[in-house]
């Protein structure tokens, strides 16, 4: 049974109930900030007006930044709607309000992070990460799938992470939630091709959004109950400074991730996987280069604990490689 009957409620009414001919309806989750906001605005401002964007967020009181960034697109190529990926009722209500339930592309962006020694995290804390990053994404995909299958067309995009391919210490549960969604989507993608539905995983490395800021704030007030002093020292004195350095040196902007996502959405036959930061490709390739798996685990261990200077130097080198003045200097013209 189709969910669709109505129109998006509560926000400025769209100029048209249905997208213009050739226009695609794109639903994006988690648009109150960061990557989701940038994706929604970039698609809504598409010079060829190829998209009608339904930018969703769980708390509409946070829509100010999105409205400001969208400017004239509001009510024209961009509408705002409430959607909490952790609630069946909210997902159903949002989809029911879309005219003719037409979702051509869904961008599953909503996500939460978690860092810290696992000894200090309760199982409930860990389940919350899976509720959003895994089950939240699955809930939205399940809701749009029947209509996409009926139409025999659609594109499911998931903002995953390089941590969906390569684990990173003290990000154990977050990485697990992204690995889980990678496995889910890799399996689903095969079945869906016969319905002409494409699945794409966008895998950013570090991105400078509120995501990391929120995590750093959370750890600043936690006293990490149940964690031994050696592990805590390792987290505070090795992991946290390294994470800050990595974000400061090779962190990307959310605009870059939005561009990669928009490029994928514009493809006729979109790729399954797209890493946004080429600097991470060698890291994720290490695990496939050695079938024992030791190479990637031991390389990361050595870089973090034994050859800290090498780690710093390689970050400096990578920063230099990606610096625009360096590009200028090696440019052939
Ligand atoms: N930043 C990075 O370094 C990085 C790297 C790789 C992948 N990613 C992934 O990129 C995605 C976006 O992250 P970001 O960096 O843009 O961080 P962000 O600015 O914190 O954005 C996360 C968004 O998800 C929303 N959200 C959280 N729980 C939700 C729920 N239950 N229902 C609906 N929306 C919910 C947040 O809404 P509220 O404002 O209501 O909390 C916010 O809009 C995430 O999936 C993240 O895992 C980020």
From TrEMBL:
Residues 9-18 have a biased composition (Basic and acidic residues). GO terms for biological process: estrogen biosynthetic process; retinol metabolic process. The keyword Oxidoreductase applies. NADP(+) binds at residues 30-58, 84, 178. One of its GO terms (cellular component) is cytosol. Residues 1-23 are annotated as: Disordered. The active site is at 174 (proton acceptor). Belongs to the short-chain dehydrogenases/reductases (SDR) family. InterPro entries: 17beta_DH, KR_dom, NAD(P)-bd_dom_sf, Sc_DH/Rdtase_CS, SDR_fam. GO terms for molecular function: all-trans-retinol dehydrogenase (NAD+) activity; estradiol 17-beta-dehydrogenase [NAD(P)+] activity. It holds the Pfam family adh_short. The lineage of its organism: Eukaryota, Metazoa, Chordata, Craniata, Vertebrata. Keywords: Lipid metabolism, Oxidoreductase. The keyword Transmembrane helix does not apply. This is Retinol dehydrogenase 8. Residues 24-210 form the Ketoreductase domain. Substrate binds at residue 161.
């Amino acid at each position: 049974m189709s969910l669709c009957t109505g129109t998006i409620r509560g926000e400025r009414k769209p100029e048209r109930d249905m997208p213009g001919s050739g226009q695609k309806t794109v639903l994006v989750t988690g648009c109150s900030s960061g990557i989701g906001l940038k994706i929604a605005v970039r698609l809504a401002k598409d010079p060829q007006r190829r998209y009608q964007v339904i930018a969703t967020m769980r708390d509409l009181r946070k829509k100010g930044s999105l409205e400001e960034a969208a400017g004239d697109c509001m009510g024209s190529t961009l509408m705002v709607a409430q959607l909490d990926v952790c609630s069946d009722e909210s997902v159903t209500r949002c989809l029911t309000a879309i005219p003719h339930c037409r979702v051509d592309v869904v961008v599953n962006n909503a996500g939460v992070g978690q860092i810290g020694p696992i000894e200090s995290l309760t199982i409930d804390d860990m389940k919350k990460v899976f509720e959003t990053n895994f089950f939240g994404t699955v809930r939205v995909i399940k809701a749009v799938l029947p209509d996409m299958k009926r139409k025999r067309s659609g594109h499911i995009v998931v903002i995953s992470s390089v941590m969906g391919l390569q684990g990173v210490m003290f990000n154990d549960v977050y990485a697990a939630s992204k690995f889980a969604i990678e496995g889910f989507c890799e399996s689903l993608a095969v079945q869906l091709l016969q319905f002409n539905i494409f699945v794409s995983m966008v895998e950013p490395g570090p991105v400078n959004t509120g995501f990391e800021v929120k995590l750093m704030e959370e750890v600043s007030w936690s006293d990490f109950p149940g964690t031994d002093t050696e592990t805590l020292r390792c987290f505070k004195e090795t992991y946290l400074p390294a994470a800050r350095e990595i974000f400061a040196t090779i962190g990307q902007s959310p605009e870059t991730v939005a561009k990669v996502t928009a490029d994928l959405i514009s493809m006729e036959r979109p790729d399954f996987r797209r890493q946004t930061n080429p600097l991470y490709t060698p890291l994720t390739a290490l695990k496939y280069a050695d079938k024992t798996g030791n190479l990637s685990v031991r390389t990361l261990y050595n870089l973090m604990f034994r050859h800290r200077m090498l780690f710093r130097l390689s970050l400096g080198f990578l920063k230099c490689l990606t610096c625009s003045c360096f590009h200028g200097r090696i440019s052939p013209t």
